[in-house]
Amino acid sequence: MSTDAKNVLGSKLEVCCTSPMTGFYRNGCCETGFQDTGTHVICAQVTEEFLMYTKSQGNDLSTPVPMFDFPGLKPGDKWCLCASRWQEAWENGMAPPVVLSATHEVALEYVPLEVLQEYATQE
After folding, report:
1. What is the DSSP secondary-structure string of 31-69?
2. How far, in Å, CA of 75 to CA of 94, rounded?
3. Rounded distance, CA 33 to CA 17, Å?
4. Across the 123 residues of the chain, what is the mean pLDDT of every consecutive 10-residue run?
């Protein structure tokens, strides 16, 4: 895990969310490393549409899973999403807004910056 991680804008990666605690490393940041096979690097503000879409694709993010200390997400929560899941949602018109300052630069290997900017939240 890198402490000098950069975001898609080229500056220091900012915290995505600590309530609920997100990130592959559960440190609030969308950092990634070799263990993160899902590449959880896009900080998204989930919407009801996205939650229903991802559940229909077999990834239920709205139901709590206490065994993994996962509270379940509700619309408005911020969460580090897999880059490939966000890309798939975008291709299907279901992509949630993105927090650019908290989205890891590795996301650019999956989605062009121009597309991410179109979905940027107004922080």
Report:
1. ---TT-TT-EEEEEE--HHHHHHHHHTT---SS-BGGGT
2. 13
3. 19
4. 82 96 94 94 97 95 89 96 96 97 97 97 75
Q: Which residue has the tokens 């804008």?
A: 9
Inter-CA distances, 120 with 36, 38, 60, 66, 75, Å: 24, 22, 24, 31, 16
Q: Which residue has the tokens 């559960």?
A: 26
Q: Is the pTM above the cut of 0.70? A: yes
Strand, coil or helix: 122: coil
Q: What is the pLDDT of residues 60-95, one digit of tens each?
A: 999 999 887 789 999 999 999 999 999 999 999 999
